[in-house]
Amino acid sequence: MQITPSTRGSWTVLTLAGKLDNAGSEELRAELLPRLSSGPASVALDCSALDYVTSSGFRVLLQAEKEQRKHGGRLLLAGLTPALRNFFEIAGLHTVLHLVPDLDSALAAER
Amino acid sequence: MTTPATPSAHPHSPLSFVEEILLLALDDTTGALRPMPVMGLDYALAGALLADLALANRIDTDPQQLVVLDRAPTGDPLLDRALGQIASAPAPQSVSHWLGVFASERSTLERAALERLVARGILSQQEKKFLWVFGVRRYPTVDNQERVEVRTRLSALILGEDLPDPRDAILISLLTASHLLARIFDDARYHARSERIATLARMDLVGREVAAAIDTLARVLRTATPVMGM
After folding, report:
1. Which of A34, A71, B26, B36 has the fewest Cβ atoms within 10 Å of its own Cβ atom?
2. Share of chain B above pLDDT 90, in %
């Protein structure tokens, strides 16, 4: 998986492309968790080019959300494809993760 | 997986899911298995085995298939035998396929887990004669600390609003799927949290597949059983 960090105002945007499988999860864990566990951080994951998530991927996202809540930060997942969104809903994760359809409008509203 | 059960190489390591599920499936005082749906324990132990392999980073799952990530032995003979079986399949199979395979090996998993729990000093083994004829083996608890700890942790999770860590999400999912959670936490405070429990239980894919297997079997049995008194 490719992870490209960028900054949008007070937000760190991580653009994810490819597969959030076991290897991708390890990369995301290394990139994301230190940002969320070092204090209140605002991180948006741009998932529009993400095409696959396995159980390992869900575990890292759950762990990241837990860290974010512990440290009073913000974590958004933007632009999931309908198939992936459906997968998140089956796992009930749409009720615990902050999923938004579009990154630009979400960041404008959250500013 | 026909090799006799082997106790864990590390008796002081944390409990595996297979051990934890079996420990929670036993009644604290009598040492007998709690009532569960048909094949409930079989599928719960099979799911626990897959969960142990997943958290050891040996397998990963998606709704279509279970894939092997790493064939390197974990050092746990029970897991390594299962990993060898999965790795030697000619093509990746679904989670439900492997649940079926390992559920059929329940007696091996159960015996291995019991031996380990006895070796850890958590359970003792007791032979009793039922009606002075049939031998019944019971596993009364010697050290209840592990069970109390896991119950305390899961209780806080169910009654609170915190997100589970991945391990507890798996455990709640497996316990709910096998209807054990309702036996362990059987009072009004937990009944009032049924929606929360359902949300937590959905978070793990293996747990969802275990629930689906047990529910499907129950449905099949209901339709296959003639209604009494007709």
Report:
1. A34
2. 75
